[in-house]
Design a protein that fits this description.
This protein is an all-alpha fold. It is built from seven helices and no strands. The protein binds heme C.
Length: 141
């Protein structure tokens, strides 16, 4: 009974344009996830150099070497993040933002070959990112 009335046509148009708009912009492509992950790693590396390097990467540094084996003992990204968030930098614990802690944790995981990150490391995925020294060996390195 509504068919053919201006109201029906308007409703139909709204519906169609609404769908088209939602469709075009929705769903970050996997490529977008990788791009964001790369940006996070670059940021993490910069933070690591600025805030962690002096103690962990120089011979006279007071922090031990953060080797793959040491880091893998945290088992997953969540517990590594929790430790760093709570205790590091040793001279100023808690002085980074959550975003910075995620970035530096992601950098260490990727740099030491403990897991592959195809999307930025964050709260929602951290439990499922398992850390293993084997991932580098499996890759033939
Ligand atoms: C002022 C020196 C200092 C700075 C800066 C520092 N650390 Fe540390 N870090 C230490 C010391 C000392 C320990 C050992 C702490 C302990 O055993 O209680 C340690 C331990 C650690 C551990 C645990 C290693 C293990 O054996 O389990 C991790 C992971 C870590 N640091 C990461 C970081 C990260 C990431 C940063 C930068 C955000 C950072 N640290 C900055 C001194 C430092």
């Amino acid at each position: 009974m509504l068919r053919g009335t201006p109201a029906f046509t308007a409703a139909l148009l709204l519906l169609l344009t609404g769908c088209a708009g939602g469709g075009a912009g929705s769903g970050p492509s996997s490529e977008g996830g990788v791009g964001l992950a790369k940006a996070q790693l670059a940021r993490g590396e910069a933070i690591y150099r600025e805030r962690c390097y002096a103690c962990h990467e120089v011979e006279s540094g007071i922090g031990e070497e953060l080797s793959p084996r040491v880091l893998a003992s945290y088992h997953n990204a969540r517990s590594l993040y929790d430790y760093i968030d709570l205790s590091m930098p040793h001279d100023e614990p808690g002085s980074l933002s959550a975003e910075e802690y995620w970035a530096v944790t992601a950098y260490l995981i990727e740099n030491r070959g403990l897991a592959r990150l195809d999307a930025p490391l964050a709260e929602e995925v951290a439990d499922s990112v398992r850390l293993s020294t084997g991932s580098r060996l499996e890759a033939g390195e």
